[in-house]
UniProtKB/TrEMBL annotation:
<keyword id="KW-0274">FAD</keyword>
<dbReference type="Pfam" id="PF00743">
    <property type="entry name" value="FMO-like"/>
</dbReference>
<dbReference type="GO" id="GO:0004499">
    <property type="term" value="F:N,N-dimethylaniline monooxygenase activity"/>
</dbReference>
<keyword id="KW-0285">Flavoprotein</keyword>
<protein>
    <submittedName>
        <fullName>Dimethylaniline monooxygenase [N-oxide-forming]</fullName>
    </submittedName>
</protein>
<dbReference type="InterPro" id="IPR050346">
    <property type="entry name" value="FMO-like"/>
</dbReference>
<keyword id="KW-0521">NADP</keyword>
<keyword id="KW-0560">Oxidoreductase</keyword>
<dbReference type="InterPro" id="IPR000960">
    <property type="entry name" value="Flavin_mOase"/>
</dbReference>
<comment type="similarity">
    <text>Belongs to the FMO family.</text>
</comment>
<dbReference type="InterPro" id="IPR036188">
    <property type="entry name" value="FAD/NAD-bd_sf"/>
</dbReference>
<dbReference type="GO" id="GO:0050660">
    <property type="term" value="F:flavin adenine dinucleotide binding"/>
</dbReference>
<dbReference type="InterPro" id="IPR020946">
    <property type="entry name" value="Flavin_mOase-like"/>
</dbReference>
<dbReference type="GO" id="GO:0050661">
    <property type="term" value="F:NADP binding"/>
</dbReference>
<keyword id="KW-0503">Monooxygenase</keyword>
């Protein structure tokens, strides 16, 4: 995806900079453009970022598009982008880059293999690595996992049918993909769904929910003709300008403001600071700060309902249709789950000889609830992310190896 806009600006650079045209080539290993949106999407998948933040500023989506594009619609948008800017002649599809190395002259030699198996070398002055970070699945080491009948990574998950019927499904990883798949599982004819996490997460819906006023007096939500604004457009931007005074830059004052604003808002709206209507699985207090937290833009009361407290607050979203669903999926009626819930559990320490999950004691409520449960998964789905690898870089070139992200030394990164 990033490669497309990079290619577009390189091909048009001579028009803005009054220089000679740039010869640019984009190599795509798959048969079509789109990366993960083409090869690794699953049933009912939607993007979690607002359409105007997801799409490029030089090619806007249709006004009629929903706030959150489906994966299929976004893929169409990318193809429309290529057509609009005539990028296709410079794109080499089904072409795998097998090596990149530096030459003594300072140029880079790119070796690539085309669809017909022919290996070609191309010398260029600069390279832009836009291959993404979701290529090589990260597979955790869990003793005894080979005793489970079906184990797949989320990269290979496509549809509800993969759960089977009357099966116990365990999903490892509480990110947006993990919560998505958990919701698909609980709304399928499965026996039980268990979601495992390492050390907490902070879940919010991707669209600001409509509050229910005075629920203790029978208040209910009322559908609005226009949905509320997306969460990623509701930004607390105190003191955020193009210029930041050194005193503010070198302190955490504004981050502390954001932190208090975020937690107070979530408490006022739902009665809990851990996440929006999130009653279990929160991030530990010692590292729960806005400057360190990545919000998981998925929320489901099917996961938290059994832990929900009963605080005396006047405004809640717990009866809102939005939080009854994992936000990456089209909104469905809560009854679609048959009033079932998703069990949250700690990360498994091992799987016994009899195929039973044994959970790590993390001292949390979910461990106390699940420690004596006999959970024998028929299906384990690893929503455990990806390893960041760039195998095409030569390990040793004329000027040594190419640096990786771990070699960066700017601003303590």
């Amino acid at each position: 995806v990033v490669g497309l806009v990079t290619l577009k600006y390189l091909l048009s650079a001579h028009k803005q900079l009054s220089t000679t045209p740039v010869e640019a080539r984009l190599f795509e290993a798959n048969n079509d453009i789109g990366g993960v949106f083409c090869t690794r999407v699953y049933e009912d998948a939607e993007l979690v970022s607002f359409k105007y933040l997801t799409t490029f500023s030089d090619f806007r989506p249709h006004d009629s598009d929903p706030d959150f594009l489906s994966a299929k619609r976004y893929l169409q948008y990318l193809n429309d982008y290529c057509e609009h800017f005539n990028l296709s002649p410079a794109i080499y599809l089904a072409t795998v880059v097998i090596a990149v190395k530096r030459l003594e002259t300072g140029v880079h030699m790119v070796s690539y293999r085309s669809k017909d198996g022919v290996v070609t070398e191309w010398a260029c002055d600069a390279i832009a690595v836009c291959s993404g970070l979701h290529v090589t699945p990260s597979i955790p080491s869990i003793d005894g996992i080979d005793r489970v009948q079906t184990v797949i990574h989320s990269a290979d998950f496509k549809a509800r049918s993969q759960f089977g019927v009357d099966k116990t499904v365990a999903i490892l990883g509480p990110g947006e993909t993990g919560l998505d798949i958990s919701y698909l599982a609980i709304t399928s004819p499965t026996k039980r769904v268990v979601l495992c996490h390492h050390d907490g997460f902070c879940a919010v819906p991707k669209q600001a929910p409509e509050p229910v006023m005075f629920p203790m007096f029978g208040g209910r939500s009322h559908p609005k003709p226009d949905p509320n604004v997306p969460i990623d457009t509701v930004v607390a931007s105190l003191f955020d300008t193009a210029y930041v005074h050194p005193t503010l830059r070198d302190s955490k004052a504004h981050w502390n403001y954001y932190d208090n604003q975020q937690k107070t808002s979530m408490w006022f709206m739902s009665g809990t600071r851990e996440g929006l209507d999130q009653w279990v699985g929160g991030i530990p207090e010692q590292r729960y700060h806005a400057s360190k937290t990545r919000l998981t833009k998925s929320a489901s009361s099917l996961l938290h309902k059994v832990y929900q407290g009963n605080p005396l607050y006047l405004c809640t979203i717990s009866d809102s249709p939005i939080v009854h669903h994992v936000a990456e999926n089209p909104l469905l009626d809560h009854a679609s789950s048959n009033r079932r819930h998703i069990d949250l559990a700690p990360w498994p320490s091992h799987i016994s000889d009899h195929g039973l999950l044994h959970f790590q004691d993390n001292g949390r409520p979910e461990y106390q609830r699940m420690r004596d449960e006999k959970v024998k998964p028929d299906v384990v789905i690893l929503a455990t992310g990806y390893n960041q690898t760039f195998p095409f870089f030569e390990t040793e070139g004329f000027h040594g190896s190419y640096p990786s992200a771990s070699d960066a030394d700017v601003r303590e990164i």
